[in-house]
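Quick sanity check, Mitogen-activated protein kinase:
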Amino acid sequence: MIEGGRIRLKTWQQAAVAVGSAVGALLDPRRADLIAALGETTGKPAFERVLQKMKSSPEGRAVLLERPRVLSANVGHAWDLPANTFGAAYARFMGSRNFSPDDRPPVRGVPTHGGRYIQYNIYGNLFEVSRKYVPPIRPVGRGAYGIVCAAVNAETGEEVAIKKVGNAFDNRIDAKRTLREIKLLRHMDHENIMSIKDIIRPPQKENFNDVYMVSELMDTDLHQIIRSNQPLTDDHCRYFMYQLLRGLKYVHSANVLHRDLKPSNLLLNANCDLKIADFGLARTTSETDFMTEYVVTRWYRAPELLLNCSEYTAAIDIWSVGCILGEIITRQPLFPGKDYVHQLRLVTELIGSPDDASLGFLRSDNARRYVKQLPQNPKQNFSARFPNMSPGAIDLLEKMLIFDPNRRITVDEALCHAYMAPLHDINEEPVCTRPFSFDFEQPSFTEEDIKELIWRESVKFNPDPPVY
């Protein structure tokens, strides 16, 4: 379990200040300092007074009831608190006599389309879902694509995550990414891969611009855990890596490359269950189109991608896994490059400059010349560079972070590595029974063509339109 230790008085004081600042910023930036000052006074009682102060205003109640994950994230990130400090206090406060069911402010939804849909204003974001998704509806994350809210499926009683992709068809690239992710998640069925439960059927086929994707609700992601003060043991690290490799084996067996593995795309529950998410950049192993810089996170990119190599393999995902392994241990990104040149320099400073034999995969003479003119670096001693990493983890890391993709360890070999021995069971590591095909993506596709395909996907989940 991911749990913090006993909460000390100093921690309560920090938490009070943190919550005060976060609440102040959420309610009224001009009052942030005042509320923070309240939290500095007497530790735990003051922290609870901050929560009590929130309860005394309608805006504060709304934050407490509908934004706990957002508030908790703000607290943890800004003040480096143990992962469950706010969560534990929040649960006690909300479960005590401070709040009764009558205190809950109603989530105001506006019926639309004859009552078949309900539109919510989630702090300035319009969220229109079919009637089966009911309050409490609260934001749990956001990104360039849009916003993610938690809601309850009234038919199953299950709490789910609903990702709204706003203006999904404004440009062809983003529209293709959304369609690709839907198709891939529908194709895959694995414990360590995020599942898709629904595509909310748009009210009108002819006139829709937003896509709502429904999936299981997870508690956090690996990026948040790494950034927290939560202690991570070697067992934590091994379990995270095993699940990541187990899921990646399934992905690669479907002839798919994820291409954007990073801590924020690895979702976690409090019991440490891990699921790979965000397949919008995935490709088949036979495709060779290059990933554009503005989309993909540079820090986790393999050398062959940094060097504009037109042909790449599943080894690019293994490099990313190695970067994640090192980040779990050090709590910092291994290669936080500012640009391509800096990125390659950081890579060679750790793993050493490649020799001629290690550059054989590069077909471009210009790329080979470029690498050779870089400052020459010896490989660092990984045991000295990562003193808190177990010998088994170091050996696995060294086999993942190899410049030549042809010499890099494969996902199957990684699962068989000695570091994974306590968890490895080939009978519990399934593969995909049929390869995935991107044949649905035609070069001539327009945004309207993609919209039609996404409409069809929503109808597969919802053959009949919602009824009042």
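Posting the structure with no commentary besides this: The chain is about 40% helix and 15% strand.
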